[in-house]
Amino acid sequence: MEHSEPEPYSALSSGAWPPGAIPGRPGHLTGDPQMPAEESGSDATPVDQLAEAATPDPEPTAGSALLEELRAQIAKFVILPSAEALDAVTLWVAATHLQPAWQHAPRLAVVGPAKRCGKSRLLDVLTETVHQPMLTINTTLAAVFRSITEEPPTLLVDEADTIFGTPKQAEKNEEMRGLLNAGHQRNRYVTRVVGADHTPHRFATFAMAALAGIGDLPDTIMDRAVVIRMRRRAEGERVKPFRSRRDIPVLHDLRDQIATWVRPLLDEAADLEPDMPVEDRAADTWEPLIIVADLAAGAWPRLARTACTRMVAAEIEAEEDQPGGARILADIRRAFVVQREPDSLTTDELLHQLRQDAESPWAEWGRSGLNAKDLAALLREFGIRPGNVRLADGTQRKGYTRFKFLDAWRRYCPTVHSVNAEASPVSG
């Protein structure tokens, strides 16, 4: 069965391997599909890459069609940031039904820079499709420990930023973070005393988990996760409303079909050691998804390795960000309006505009106001980076071009009229 692309992703997923992302050749990572092989660090020649891309997909199994259907169902209700992210979520859901086979239990970190990015809706869909979902809302840590057995549930944590968002919250929930860290690898137990006589008891921790929240989760969790960086829907992007009575029976039927397909393959899955395009902990985390893809065959082995390569490369390149939210985008938009919508602003000009707004936090940001490094860190979360901009005298300086903000403005501060009303151009 051919891999059918839902409309929002039709331009994002291709049949060819990205340069430098060859299955089984660790370390050849690039997030830029246009990057030449010699710049990406790959030792593969163009001939090698063409031969790899020309290799036909293996004959699909019944599982390939089930994964296609699951992928389509997820895409009905939530818009993922890329075709690769949609493939990854699909494979992660299927992998929850084979947890006894895995050495590592990948986390799914569903994060976004602001509210209303679809994080909770994705968790709604996961709840109805994963193996034995266990929502941790108002659930004690002791109850979670006692629920993890040799056939573990799938832990689902919404609003994870309320658990780990501040140092005080993180300290209060340190045991939960320890459970999530230890549970990434099989045979990592924790010992607690139980009962009136305080008898030591060893509890299992191994279980797959999905966590959704605003901003990045603790580094130790992100490092063990398939990271899905959600975005707010832009104008014109549509999803189907989720209705429990109508949609849950359909998702449950599909869930049961996937479980029926994979359960006889448990021993085979446990014995597989697939070629991985990444190494170390990233390989540990992605291996269950790659194995599910190899069991399904068809286009899935290729799609899974493409998703793995590109998404891991993106996380490697991303530096630790400071929380900024949509405020920085709205204020930068206002700065461009005040300057009569130029094609670009130098970093110094933009910082001057931001810091002179008495109602903004930027003049008092850090020790001496927002600086170039802080600004770059705030914008990196939205995929916006500085570059060289040309001045009127022909010289170049570091700055930001307006077109790089257009997509983020559409998603996080789309009301043009309110910006124009607050920042009218200077008359002259």
From TrEMBL:
<feature type="region of interest" description="Disordered">
    <location>
        <begin position="1"/>
        <end position="46"/>
    </location>
</feature>
<protein>
    <submittedName>
        <fullName>DUF3631 domain-containing protein</fullName>
    </submittedName>
</protein>
<feature type="domain" description="DUF3631">
    <location>
        <begin position="229"/>
        <end position="412"/>
    </location>
</feature>
<dbReference type="InterPro" id="IPR022081">
    <property type="entry name" value="DUF3631"/>
</dbReference>
<dbReference type="Pfam" id="PF12307">
    <property type="entry name" value="DUF3631"/>
</dbReference>
